[in-house]
Amino acid sequence: MKYISFISIIIPALLISACNLPTGAPQDPQGLVFTQAAQTVAAAAGSATPAITSTPVPTGTIAVASTATNTPTPCNQASFVADVTIPDNTSITVGDGFTKTWRLRNVGSCTWTSSYQLVFDSGDQMGGPASQQLTAGSVAPNGTVDVSVNLVAPGAPGTYKGNWKIREPGGAVFGLSTGPFWVQIKATAAPQADWPTYEAGDTGPEVFALQHLLKARGYVLNADGIFGPITEARVEDFQTDKNLGEDGIVGPETWAALIIQTNQGDTGQEVRAVQKLLKDKYGYNINVDGIFGPDTSNAVKDFQSDNGLAVDGIVGPNTWRELVSN
Questions:
Q1: Domains in the chain: ranges and CATH
Q2: Spatial CA neighbour of 235 closest among 208, 254, 253, 222
């Protein structure tokens, strides 16, 4: 009992003293003995307290798993760069031909080759092809290309829009990320030419034409291209029969009453009048034989296209007016 009391007194004193010793100071043997004794007593009493350890907190950036996903670039896709020609709502005379050119960028991952096609998608085709080659060369990703198509403004005034896309060699059709690219125009009425005036002393293809028209109406005269006294007299006769002013001058009212509509398959003096104008005045290589065949029809259509008229091959009032006025 005395031993235990001694230990209970000395150990706390030693512990207090130990706390005041500098860290790492050498211990004397007596101190070691008391330390060992204290440890023995603590073990015997079962009162050892487990050491508390702290886990170091890591410093620096903490990696967090990303939830973002990468969207793969599509093989084929285009983006619009500019309207090189014919911006939206450009006014074009009805029947006039025009060339639309877009500048497109290849924003896909595949190269466009000569096997790619420009294709009509929807809307107003305006005389364009169903498909045509997109490019004669190649367009690498992020490259640009100017794509052109030849079109014709429709024959009636109004707003027209045609949508176009691209077809890759495997047959898949694609366009911009938002859909097709397009051409949009405003077809406007052709400005009408004034009827010319012809009278005694005039010569030329127009006089030939009016002489042939008088012959087609049943009046007897020679078609020689010279507006002489006989032609003047026949004009006055025609004006009398049509209740027009009898002045012997072929002006707007007389022309409007004198012309005869004609088209492919017709024959007669009115056809000769058309052929004479097309051949001698405009240089078309056709025969003046009074037969409205394919060659004459093609010449009429070319003339109509060149002069902003509806390309129908029919020589009506508008085409007659252009033929004798230019």
A1: 2-45 (no CATH), 78-188 (2.60.40.10), 205-325 (1.10.101.10)
A2: 254
Closest listed residue to residue 92, CA positions, set 192, 162, 190, 193:
190
216-249 tens-digit pLDDT: 999 999 999 999 999 999 999 999 999 998 999 9
The 3-state DSSP class for residue 322 equals helix
Report the Cα 289 to chain-centroid distance in Å.
46
Predicted pLDDT at 43: 42
List all residues 6 or more positions away from 33 whose beta carbon is below 8 Å from its beta carbon: none
Buried-exposed string 79-105: b where 16+ CB fall within 10 A, e elsewhere: beeebeebeeeeebbbbbebebebebb
pLDDT at 193: 67
CA distances from 271 to 196, 210, 296, 315 (A): 20, 12, 9, 9
Q: From the CB of residue 226, how many other CB atoms can be counted at a distance below 10 Å?
A: 16
CA-to-CA dists, residue 96 to 228, 237, 265, 281, angstroms: 38, 39, 26, 21
Q: Determine the pLDDT at residue 248.
A: 96
Type of residue found at 166: I
The list of the chain residues with pLDDT below 70 reads 1-70, 190-193, 326
Please list, in sequence order, all residues whose beta carbon lies within 8 angstroms of the beta carbon of residue 61, skipping any fewer than 6 positions away: none
Alpha carbon separation from 122 to 81, 83, 98, 130, 181 (Å, rounded): 21, 19, 19, 10, 11
Quick one: 233 exposed, middle or buried, by C-beta within 10 A (0-12, 13-18, 19+)?
middle
How far is residue 266's CA from residue 279's CA, in Å, rounded to a whole number? 18
Q: Helix (H) and strand (E) counts for the chain?
A: 8, 9
